[in-house]
Amino acid sequence: MSVGDELEFINTETGEEFAQAKIVAVFEKTFANIVPADFETHEKYKSKTEMLETYRQYYGEKVNKNNLVKIITFKILK
Question: Number of C-alpha atoms within 13 angstroms, CB side, residue 24?
Answer without folding.
Answer: 7
